[in-house]
Amino acid sequence: ETKLKTPYGCVLAHSMGLGKSLTCIAYLVSLLRHPVAKRSIKTILVVAPANVVRNWQDEFEKWCKTDRRILDRVRVVDTKISSKAERVRELDEWKKHG
Fold this sequence. Notes:
Blueprint: H1 20-33, H2 37-40, H3 50-63, H4 68-71, H5 84-97
């Protein structure tokens, strides 16, 4: 349990091929499974360039294939959605249902 009153976030960015995706996926899955953390963390938003969004989905499926509870919570917002209203609707659905 953290002693911080305000949670902090971070940004992990650098060159390709350093294992950032796997590191982040392992951390996010740990948060979703941790008995204390999962009480307050219901949804996680990963913002990534359009050309790597599907890769993130594939990585979740590869590394969490035996955990349906985790996979069922992974949602990819289609990067081809062009209208702002549709994107807002997708994000609202994510917020409601994870």
